[in-house]
Amino acid sequence: MSWTLTPIRKYLVIFGLCLGAVPLIGLINFVFLMNAGEFEPIDKIIEIQSQHDALFYSALRTVTYPYKLSLFHHVKPRVVALGASRVWQIRSQYFTGSFVNMGGAMASFKEGEAILRKMAASHKPAVVIMGIDPWWFASGAGNFQMGTATATGQEFRLDMLFMPCDWLIRQKVSYQNYFKVLLGKTPSPIPAFGVTAVTRMDGFYKDGSYYDLGLVTGFHNLGDRKFEWVESKIKAGSDAFKYDKSISKDRWEEFVSMVMFAQRENIHLITFLTPLPPRIIDLMANMGDNYAYIDELRAMLPEVSKLSYDFFDPRSFGSSDCEFIDGIHGGEITYLRILLEISKDPASGLSPYLNLDKIVKCIDQYRGKAMVPPPFYKQPFIERDFLELGCKKP
Amino acid sequence: MLFNSYFFIFFFLPITLGIFLFIRKLNYPKLVPIWLILASLFFYSWWNPLYVMLLIFSIIINFMIGSILNKTYNQPYYHNIILIIGITANLCLLCYFKYAGFLVNIVNDLFSSQINIGSIVLPLAISFFTLQQVSYLIDAYHGEAKQFDFISYAASVTFFPHLIAGPIVRYRDLVPQFSRAPVMKSYNSTDLVVGLTIFFIGLFKKVILGDTIAVHANTVFSAAAVGAQATFLEAWGAVMAFNFQIYFDFSGYSDMAIGLARIFGIRLPINFDSPYKAVNFIDFWRRWHITLTSFMRDYLYFPLGGSRKGVPRQYLNIMIIMLICGLWHGAGWTFVIWGGVHGLYIVINHLWLTLRRRWGHDLDHPTWYGTVLARCITMAALLFSIAIFRADNLHTSWLMIKGLAGLNGVLVPELHLNLWGLGFLQPVLPGWGIQVGTISLLGSYPMEGLIFCWLIVSFMPNTQEIMSRAEPALHYHLQEAAGTWAWLRWRPTPAWALACGLLAVITMLMMAKPSPFLYFQF
Known about the structure:
- The complex is a heterodimer.
- Chain A has helices spanning about 5-35, 40-50, 65-75, 110-120, 165-170, 175-180, 195-200, 215, 230-235, 250-265, 280-285, 290-305, 330-345, 355-365, and strands spanning about 55, 80-85, 100-105, 125-130, 190-195, 200-205, 210, 270-275, 310.
- Chain A is of the alpha/beta class.
- Chain A is globular and about 85 Å long.
- By secondary structure, chain B is an all-alpha fold.
């Protein structure tokens, strides 16, 4: 092997020029991310959201926890919805006073108790409505953590600059939307921050609740078609759907500890078991005793507190598959039904904080749908059958 | 620090290389190994700074023992004792960190005791740097390790391209390259070009091929670990996916290591030679993780007697070696059994070859259909062993083996049936005990991906064959890409520069989420 220097130098130059494209693409992606508002500080986003009806959701940063906490301190609400993403559809417009949805700030009882402690130390809401996911009690699933408790929302890693390439290839972001954002335009017809909100029109509203506006209206088509994604998780026993015969003693003790803490601190805590679509519940029931821990949990919950409600099966309160966002998240109408059910129990003390007339009216008017037309959305709102379940959504 | 991370590619490598070139320009070659040691220790400390001390301690002790062995060559009594002390010390270190938990579990199971030693963190690369230094001690014992200075020795052990996951480098191969100043003087830009090209080919194999196919294997094995019953095609799809994943991952890593070393003018030994083209298991282990095989052969198999003490003893030696090989891969019964299964394969292979010789078959001139059949049988046997190797425990292995045998039922993907115009079979298949539906465990069934990977590993030339003109690795004596693939023989032309450059760009754009290499855990 011996080559003269000329071809080697030529090779190095061409190879180097190609490699030089990588930082250049990183730079272009940086502009895209900046234009999408990905690098905006959380406090600024909250401030802008409070002035304009803007949606916010980052595809890049772990911001839910710091964002929700800032929102809480900013609003100092009377009522708070707490839990994982499965309480995101509870919205401020159905409450008579101030409300913040802190869904996504916790995914375990340790995290829940930590947030309650923060509330006890700063501002105690009159009512905390907490959605409990059944898999938080499964030992097989481990101790779920949002991993966000230490997140500041200001993290920057080099690989972030190349994530847009992955989104483009996997068609999570279309080339059309990418270039629009790059040129400083917003694909979303409403004000938005963060790549998800800007390119998909899905994101947190100023009350912290989440609008799957792009999915529901057909702005994008990235939903859980026929619940297939969740069904595959159940068949594989993976992620949240890990199999377990009985509930974890440790998790149960953590739950009891959290409830006791709330009682000691005079925090009015209402807990409820979050729902899954009937089709998913039936599939889980057909898996033998793989999910036996959920039956055990449902029997045990009332032992801890009178204010623990079981809404696991939406058929029990009149909801259906068509009112779900996907195979794991109930829609707005499902949660309106839940609020109404809780309010029927005088012991819950929730009625005074709810706009019951509006709730009843919305349930009547939008039954079978996943979303009530958002007041800030000025375009014609048509909910489509985004789950492709054959739901009639005239 | 991972080779497939932006920090490594954009910061660590350019800075290390820049200072390396600067030192060369100063014409002070003795500084080069010192700089490479410092850079390598920083590279290692990225994982856990505390364990750098363990690495340094291990290097100092082994160098001292090796020096003494070189001096006591004519004093057999002391010579033997010092070697035993040296090897024992190394093995104790390895046993403590890697096998203590496993051994305690065995004791607890056997005697119903409840000994608890807590969790011991396995220092990264301990299996690799221990083997490398044991080989040094044995070479020194046999008088085959010429004494070099400590800096060259330390540089050869810590050299970051091979430190974490090999290739396992012999003292005699590497230390002379660091000790002789000319290696630094003879360095030229060809090394840089060849090294970069090999590095990015390896990165492509890891990121684009290995990581893509990995998803399918992980899903099924994780599902089996929690009790899900993988059906026939799901199980075969998963073992095939993992089979290709581990090859692209590990051979990709080896390419990257060889390429990185070459960037600094150092040549590492070849580690893979298209193992999935093997026609039997003897052939397979000559092509797969070559540096481990040759280590086992030279430092274990031959000392045990090899094939010199009769056929039964040879087979026993093979079984011992392969069980140790399995245990080296991990402290668990699945690895031991996997090693045992491969040992059995090799023994059966030897018996079969003996039989064929007795029958008068011409083994040197196989027929094309014989080769195809041999490759298929070897691959099927390999896939079966993968079900044991990849599983988290014996129960999961058993579930996967049941799936491979079709005992969990057969489910054919409706999508592919229709895609291939076989939809008309749909009504009759259930009558034959075959269900038609969605293969949920594998996600979208990666049939096309698996076929694509199979074509690459079965027919395309490997990195060394492509780079044959550049003498890519030590002990390189493979055939170069020829015949149909002659156009794939690399040369420093603008077209190749552009092709390799684009390959590098695509790969780097796709590695936003770096995943660790599989062999880091061994």
